[in-house]
From TrEMBL:
This is histidine kinase. It is found in: Membrane. It comes from Anaeromyxobacter dehalogenans (strain 2CP-C). The keyword Phosphoprotein applies. Keywords: ATP-binding, Kinase, Nucleotide-binding, Phosphoprotein, Signal, Transferase, Two-component regulatory system. Residues 292-505 form the Histidine kinase domain. Its main location: membrane.
Amino acid sequence: MRRVATKIFLTFAVALAAFAAVAGFGVARLHDLRRDLRTLSSGYIPLTRIAAQLDVKDWVTARALEARVLDPAARRAYLPVARAHFPALVREKIEEGKRVAAGARIDASGDDARFLGDVLARLDGLAARWADYDREARALLDALEAGAGMGPGAAAFDARVAAVRQLEKGLSLDVKLLQVALETQIADRVHDAERTEGNTVALTVIYSLLALAVGVGAAAISQRLLAPIQTLTEGVKAVAAGDLTRKVEARGRDEISVLAHEFNAMAASLDRQRAELLRAERLAAVGRISAQITHEIRNPLNAIGLNAELLAEEIAALPAPPAEATGLVSAISREVDRLNAVTEEYLRFARLPRPQLERHDLNEILGGLLDFLGPELAAARVDVHRALAPGLPGVRCDEGQLRAVFLNLLRNSREAMPGGGTVRVVTRRVDSGAGVEVELGDTGGGIPPGDLTRIFEPFYSTKERGTGLGLAFTQQVVEEHGGTIRCESTVGRGTVFTLRFPAIEDRVEHEVGAAT
């Protein structure tokens, strides 16, 4: 069973993870953007500046040709200036470029690292080419200082100048290519940075919206998880107000669902207890009223019965007793007897003694009762089918009260079949021997569904001259014995009463007897 708190924690943990993912994405993209900007600011831009400084405009060949036409004295004054004009500066810029490219390559990655490696290779090539050029340029200046370029050695001097000029063209081309590569790379990186910035903004907005949706979903799920508490609160208020039939919907397997199930069980139990309490109060009131009415009626009835007997004797002593008077006196006696039977039934219901529980065999009780009622049932053309299970466990009961219960049900069956019929008496073990069940069925006219729900109510009867206490007394006795009774009936096919009692095994009975 997963707790509601755990579910709520997990939903908000998912929402928090979503927002953390968005924040992490933004931080990562900003870190990449900052690295790209650092590569631009500390790598590509300084390298572009250095490459621009390497673009030499005043080469040695031009100075050598200028010095060639000078007179010897002017040439000797000009050549030291030409020697010291730029070689050292160019070499320093190449080394500076290599340091800048190496430092930028440390923080770079991917294409930037590869490009900076290519820049380093280009600068190494420039350094080597510049060393060759420096050597050849110095040799050319040395030749000029020795007087070359005039007379017979002019052709050799021109060839040397052409070779140095070729080196100058190669150096110039390499520097131009380096500048173009740096400018192109800077343009590409700026374009990539702009595109990355746009994508980062768009993705951040999208991911933020998704994270917001996850957060809203988490809040909705939490609200849904907590909604049963509100329903449960309303149910508690309804039960407190007296509505014990209120049910709370319980779904899932968390503690709120368990609480809702327990609440429903509690409400149902309270409803049953209230119904039982009301029934007990009603029965108590009925008992008090019955006892009072019976007390007030019995003495006058006894007096009327006694006087009717005396009157009958007086009429019988006459020489010619009138037949009509004899019939009236007999009718009075019969009605007095019937009213006495009714008062006895009221008293029995109102003053039902506590059962004296002892171990008895229901088969013996039923068998003896059926033998006793045999002539009566036979006279009413009622056949009896017995199906008493052998080896039936005993029950703790008051034999007299149970005999009265079975007698009442059997006579009700007989009265339900005025033209005759069949009564079935069945006993069986139930609940793996933990209980004993008695089934009394008949083939009478049955009980209508509207009456079936009220047959156990006191004073409710379907008979014209019934008191309505027979089945109420039966239910009261069965429940006093810890049993249950139910009725199933179909109009036109008959009625079946099923009584169930807790069983007592013989060995348990022996143990109880030995302990006492």
